[in-house]
């Protein structure tokens, strides 16, 4: 397994549509998923799409943010090959998102609050799940990468984007004050 370089905003691969994976159970696909896992953990990310490591294939990985029953903090990583999703509700949520390809920055993005997603794992089994909240958000964000879409083109408004420290200072504090005064 290798830690690979992550493509950053401005690299054309991030704007390309990823190709369908035909050899789902091949060693090549396994190696890509292992390298993506190592790269994501090294970068302390919660999701990664293959184009972000310069591989134009429909593969995403993410950490399912569910609290484990065990005391041990096991990190559960899901890898999905050729993923798809559908919304379960028309309701959406605005939340701040980051991306390993846009380090240090956050943007306010609207996403469906509940989705159903599916894809293959590297053994060729179909994974099908319902997700909401952060889990649903991550899947939608990573799926977007496979369409060549970055969150910066989905901002709630153009001004809702900036460096994480400034967002904490000038946006999040305001949101907390607002919610406390209500
Ligand atoms: Ni991203």
Protein topology:
Elements: H1 27-42, E1 47-49, E2 59-63, E3 77-87, E4 92-97, E5 105-112, E6 114-120, E7 126-132, H2 133-146, E8 161-163, H3 164-181
Antiparallel strand pairs: 1-2, 2-3, 3-6, 4-5, 5-8, 6-7
The chain binds nickel (II) ion.
Nickel (II) ion (NI) is lined by residues 99-101, 141, 145.
Predict the CATH topology of the domain at 12-92 and 112-154. Answer: Peptide Deformylase
Alpha plus pi helix count:
3
Gyration radius, to the nearest Å?
Answer: 17 Å
Helix content: 25-40%
Please name the fourth-level CATH homologous superfamily of the domain at 12-92 and 112-154.
Answer: Peptide deformylase
Strand content is: 25-35%
Q: What string gives the helices and strands in order?
A: HEEEEEEEHEH
Please mark out the parts with pLDDT under 50 across 5 or more consecutive residues, or reply none: none
Bound small molecules, by name, code or SMILES, are: nickel (II) ion
pLDDT averaged over residues? 93
- Cα separation of the termini: 51 Å
Quantity of strands, as a count: 8
Structural class: alpha+beta
Main sheet attributes: strand count, strand direction, barrel closure:
5 strands, antiparallel
